[in-house]
Amino acid sequence: MANKFKQAGLVALGAALGVAASLHFSAVADRQMSTLSLPVDDLRLFSEVFGRIKSDYVEPVEDKKLLKEAINGMLTGLDPHSAFLDQEAYRDLQVGTQGEFGGLGIEVGAEEGFVKVVAPIEDTPAYRAGIKAGDLIVKIDETSLKGVTLSDAVKKMRGKPNSEVKLTVMRKDEAQPLEFTLRRDVIRVKSVKARMLEPGYGLVRVTQFQEHTGENLVTAINDLYKQSGGEMKGLVLDLRLNPGGLLNAAVGVSSAFLPKNALVVYTDGRTDDARMRLTATKENYVRGAFKEDYLNKLPAGVKNVPLVVLVNGASASASEIVAGALQDHKRATIIGTQTFGKGSVQTILPLPNNQAVKLTTARYYTPGGRSIQAKGIAPDMVVEDASETRIVLREADLQHHLAGEDDASGPKGNAKPVDKIIAGPATGKGATAPLIAKTAPKGDAKGDAKATDPKDAAAKDAKKEDVQLNAAINFLKGQPLTTTAAVTK
């Protein structure tokens, strides 16, 4: 298993999401190709159309452009996440997983031929300008995005720092298009943020799963334990608006809270390389055989501290892997709303001249055998937030999305779910039955409170506005929530 993981170098990159797509780097050197029977009649038709374009199109078209667009169409017609990566797109993908790139700071996906905002990244030009989840970007500068591929749209949004770009967006409940002029910046995505909510209760927010997210999580948790005097009463892991990222980082984050060797996720596809079982062991989350196990630096109490995981409709891919693993092992209580449902694996297949194909090769399954694809993770306790009205795009809504599989039937390949779920009941002092809780905030939810002193009036007001975080704290403290119905699973 360890050797297979090293060979595949699997990653899951969210986003639902185009820029934020779920991937894994496959170190395929000399893959033996099976004998294929070519569809001669269809190839003849392709040649005929190619020739007609060359001879009759209103303007001359280079062969290279036609063939490239044919490849793009062949891949994008499969599902929303398969794509051809030219040199620039391949380079951007590699840079993006390192957490730094030049642009606006928007996680995007495709809808109805335009670009849809999944989530703006905090502390970026897009976030500061007021771009919101659910916005439909219809123009970049004066160029309409109708029919423009997602990768080409991303190229237009990225650029040199300090250069300006104008976005025209359609927003739900707005009669007229909105225009935003943004100044590009170097986007440094800090993937882990942490703070004390009140004495004994801490918040760790993971915004994206990057190369060093696991190590940064360890640092953040240790800081919280120091602030609390070496012991925590409860911890909130916030995965809302997290589009995904590297799979090994997701395995690392899950492993921080699970027993050693617990199954985190498994994949199933048509090939042997697509069938993997990733457990809470160093080989599955530390890149490099000679690197130390960063989880050894965690305080022992983190394995048992009462834990709540916050999710919403923009929690995708690697976020769903973490939420699903902690839920199946009954290690955490999941609070929020149904997640995005990005449960497919993309393999990066290198091509000559620093190009690549991003191809969907497998589906993800939680330790208990649930398929994530087009379904997502259902929270244990549904707490709706006003901001959810702006998050309407999910995997099942995407054109050509890969269908999920019936949970009861299980995967069709050789991968098997865990034989026994490790760990006890979900931690926390509140009710353990799945509940639906509705807390109506005044105005839009603002996200995490900025102040750290719970006695500060401003901090109290900010915390009230984040109804899901407030529900998580109340649950950990055993305080009652406003519930409207109980549901069973």
Structural account:
The protein has 489 residues and is an alpha/beta fold. The chain has two domains: 100-188, Pdz3 Domain (Roll); 192-486, 2-enoyl-CoA Hydratase, Chain A, domain 1 (Alpha-Beta Complex), CATH 3.90.226. 24% of the residues lie in helices and 24% in strands. The strands form four sheets. It has an eight-stranded mixed β-sheet, sandwiched between helices. Strand 14 (263-269) and strand 15 form a beta hairpin. Helix 8 (247-255) packs parallel to helix 9. The protein is globular. The two termini are 32 Å apart. Residues 1-35, 407-464 and 483-489 have low confidence and may be disordered.
Outline of this structure?
The protein is of the alpha/beta class and 489 residues long.
Q: How is the topology of this model organized?
A:
Layout: H1 2-8, E1 24-25, H2 40-56, H3 63-76, E2 83-85, H4 87-96, E3 100-103, E4 106-111, E5 114-120, H5 125-129, E6 136-140, E7 143-144, H6 150-157, E8 164-170, E9 178-183, E10 185-188, E11 192-198, E12 201-206, H7 213-227, E13 234-238, H8 247-255, E14 263-269, E15 276-279, E16 307-311, H9 318-328, E17 333-336, E18 344-351, E19 355-365, E20 381-384, E21 435-438, H10 457-465, H11 467-477, E22 483-486
Parallel strand pairs: 1-18, 12-13, 13-16, 16-17, 17-20, 20-21
Antiparallel strand pairs: 2-19, 3-10, 4-5, 5-6, 6-7, 6-8, 8-9, 11-12, 14-15, 14-19, 18-19, 21-22
Helix pairs in contact: 8-9
